[in-house]
Write a structure and sequence with these properties.
About 0% of the residues lie in helices and about 50% in strands. With about 240 residues, the chain is mainly β.
């Protein structure tokens, strides 16, 4: 079986010579593959694809900067492009400053799939407010939580915090996209998201990390190789510290 090679392109703007741009193309291991130049406003020309015996070159991967978290300023929402089924599981690492909706959607009292936080409780509404799980927490803590039909777990310790993991989950589905934060419940200023993973059954369909892409704070999904941005007209995410390792 052939191995695969993906390279990364990073664009640097020269401060000393503003008339030209230097484009550095990196191998997947971080070593430099080659450098090319481009005039401001011009078209970047791709270098010759590498030919390494035993590898198949898949193409050039967009560059992004890893950040520790993205932070809400109020009103933002990022759609994940996927919906909730009876076998959906979600892992989210977050820090809510006070109270707010962390993840899910809300289409009225009988159409809910939302995970949210009060100053002292983790709460998961599934289908309706009548089906609500709660677990104790403390506002301002970084929490790494896994939730699904119908349970809340501490991901790091695999400790069940509320509910019972069902062998035959309750049949349920809604066509609304699952989202980070929500316009139906304004995000609290200072809330932070560190990562998000979504499984449909045993299949990982989203593995999202916070990044800066072309100057915009967003989430990058490693499964679909897609960037997901704030789709609201409100708010602006703040970038956390850059991850250098």
């Amino acid at each position: 079986m052939k191995k695969f090679l993906i390279l990364v392109c990073i664009l640097f703007v020269s401060v000393a010579i503003a008339e030209s741009l230097t484009v550095t193309w990196y191998n997947i291991d971080g070593t430099t593959y080659t450098n090319t130049t481009c005039e401001p406003g011009g078209t970047i020309t791709l270098p010759v694809a590498p030919n390494i015996p035993g590898y198949t070159f898949l193409g050039w991967k967009p560059y992004y900067t890893r950040i520790k978290y993205l932070e809400a300023t109020g009103g933002e929402v990022i759609s994940t492009g996927t919906t909730a089924y009876q076998n959906t599981k979600v892992r989210i690492k977050f820090n809510v400053a006070n109270s707010g909706l962390v993840f899910g959607f809300f289409n009225g009292p009988s159409q809910e799939y939302r995970f949210f936080v009060s100053p002292s409780l983790l709460m998961f509404d599934y289908g309706s407010q009548a089906t609500r799980l709660t677990a104790n927490t403390t506002s301002g803590q970084i929490r790494d939580i896994l939730f699904g039909n119908l349970y809340i777990k501490d991901y790091a310790t695999n400790t069940l915090l509320a509910g019972t993991e069902q062998s035959s989950p309750v049949a349920w589905h809604n066509d609304s996209d699952l989202s980070i934060f929500s316009l139906s419940w304004p995000a609290s200023v200072g809330d932070r998201i560190y990562l998000l993973q979504i499984w449909q059954g045993d299949t990982l369909v989203r593995d999202m990390i916070p990044v800066v892409h072309e100057g915009t704070v967003c989430m990058y999904d490693k499964v679909s190789d897609t960037f997901f941005y704030n789709i609201s007209n409100s708010g602006r995410f703040i970038a956390g510290p850059i991850i250098t390792d």
